[in-house]
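Human: Here is a favour to ask of a fellow structure person. Comparing notes only helps if you start from a blank page. Give me a protein, with the fold worked out from its sequence. Please set it down just below, with no commentary around it:

Assistant:
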Amino acid sequence: MKNLNNLLLGLAFCSLLSCGNQQKEIYVTSCLFPEGVTADEKARLAAHVVPSGRQLEWQQMEFTCFICYGVNTFTDAEWGTGKEDPSVFNPTELDARQWARTAKDAGMKMILLTCKHHDGFCLWPSAYTDFSVASTPWKDGQGDLVREVADACKEYGLKFAVYLSPWDMNHPDYGTEQYNDYFVNQLTELLTQYGRVDEVWFDGACGEGPNGKKQEYDFMRYYELIRRLQPQAVIAVMGPDVRWVGTESGYGRDTEWSVLPAAVSSLTAIAESSQQETGSGTFLPEGDKMAQDLGSRTLLADARGVIWYPSEVDVSIRPGWYYHASEDTSVKTPQKLIDIYYSSIGKNSLLLLNLPPDKRGLIHENDISSLMNMKRILGKTFEKNLLENAVSSIGEIGDLTDGRLETYWQGSGKTNTIEISFEGEEEFDRLLLQENITEGQRIERFTLECQVGDTWQMVTEGTTVGYKRILRFAPVRCNKVRIVVSESRDLPQLSEIGFYKASEEEQE
């Protein structure tokens, strides 16, 4: 550590400061590497990049709900045209409380509503267009679905988020600077009329409008408005706080870094408008976010700096994003959803699962059944952490099972091993690990080993941990295990460890 004491960064401090005979760790959300630092020093500095307060709160939700609803629901389409007759939107039993209750019962922490998709149809009575619920038979044009969902979220203790498509196939000003004014006006409505908003979701779609033109989106202006009106909201996935994992399959990477290389221009903007403050936090995603390697030492070697930029996995419970009666028998099974859970939340990502309501305005019974069985089966798997009745080589085991990031085991830098002895032989096939990401993502490689006789045998291995990592493997039975962190960017910190035996229903 001492060899980095002299690395002081002008734009973003990411170093160790000398304080008398002691050293003070400095943590930031982005870091511009000084000239001439080695690859090892870059990795050490990257280990001091941490989430902002809003990013940490977002990550700790783990599981959230996407609601795709609009004219597409009634035209049986996935993508609208902007030419739909608003009168097709006429749900007969719409119940936003059922949506919120379903999300709550499933363990989801937030609902993200498609307030406007690419077709331009608005689920609230916007003052800036007639292409909205105000022009529909639903509630005689007096309805406001955004308000109903926001109110239902408050009732059930869920966070509320908005999806607003920059692409608009309906508005006549699309493709001109006037459209950016229109978009900002609509964004202002959503951010000022419905209470607290915890996430604003933009996708990257940019097609032609009704006049055949494409729009140059003024993202910087959008970001500044969000930071000013809802400073606690994360901006995803065309934004500075959250990135798209790269597919809509529900599967993240085996090696998922939350600390990614970023262009100097982006880092400069972030340094001037820190993500930790209420500044603009202007940042546009760059590079191939679908690549398998986004943050390794190989990439750091050529990088000028890094930023905390965590992954969100979005996937629908059905083949499509909008409801189609023909897909009622194609809802993902509980076992498929569980596989997605392990491949998203279990791989250092947040899972955003779409539950598309039907023409009635209700989440379909088949979707609810599959979702609740997923919750029930996972509940059985994770109801008992075998570590709670174990003895560790590091002393008190409670810090590793208390559900708090701030209580953790830290390696020594030489022997980064935790040995655990159970009261007797235990059988398990799941290992859960969490890093204390409030002080960075550090672990690069680890193994789980069981003692058999006088020898240690490897059970499984992994690379990154981050906020949460869950490994699945064939059942093993033993009374002594050890976790060996073989590669790390700084002293490893594990805040949670769990050993579990999967419910038999997971395998059905």
Summary: The CA atoms of residues 71 and 440 lie 44 Å apart. Confidence is low (pLDDT under 50) at residues 1-23, 270-286. DSSP finds eleven helices and 20 strands in the chain. The two ends are 50 Å apart (CA to CA).
